[in-house]
Design goal:
Layout lengths: L3 H11 L4 E2 L2 E2 H14 L9 H10 L2 H4 L4 H8 L1 H9 L8 H9 L2 H20 L3 H15 L2
Antiparallel strand pairs: 1-2
Helix pairs in contact: 1-3, 2-3, 2-8, 3-6, 3-8, 5-6, 8-9
Length: 144
């Protein structure tokens, strides 16, 4: 059975050299993991270990050369499918993407966490355009 440590190892491999602002990208992944665990009170029947793994891998298909097949082989179909739901595919409308994320409970938890982290960073950076973008995204994800 694959663990969070396997997810971190794979994320470090594929996100090597990528940055989130001035920090190593993996630090962003850890922030999303922590925020996702904080959101777990709102859901039932989702195991925290799955949320942790998906949070660590949430950008791996979109931002690296890692394949869906590699995720299935390493973590199973459920994790791979949740990560795929978090991956915006070229040509997909934004509305379709948000509905896809909301259709998978684990992806939904992780995307809310990711959006909150991105909003927090945008506020720290005083990036007004991104503040508006992530605030709107958070409202759509939370059904407000």
């Amino acid at each position: 059975m694959s663990t969070m440590y396997d997810a971190v190892s794979l994320a470090r491999k594929y996100h090597a050299g990528q940055k989130y602002g001035t920090r190593d990208y993996v630090e962003h992944l850890f922030s999303v993991r922590d925020a996702a665990l904080d959101n777990m009170d709102d859901v039932k029947g989702v195991h925290a270990s799955v949320v942790v793994i998906v949070a660590i891998l949430h950008d791996i298909l979109e931002d690296t050369e890692c394949t869906y097949e590699e995720l299935v082989e390493t973590f199973g179909e459920g994790v791979a499918e949740s990560v795929a739901c978090l991956t915006k595919v070229g040509g997909e409308s934004y509305e379709y993407y948000i509905e896809k994320v909301k259709s998978d409970e684990v992806a939904w938890i992780v995307k809310i966490a990711d959006t909150r982290c991105n909003l927090r960073q945008s506020i720290l950076d005083d990036n007004k355009g991104c503040i508006v973008k992530y605030a709107k995204q958070l409202m759509l994800l939370e059904g407000l």
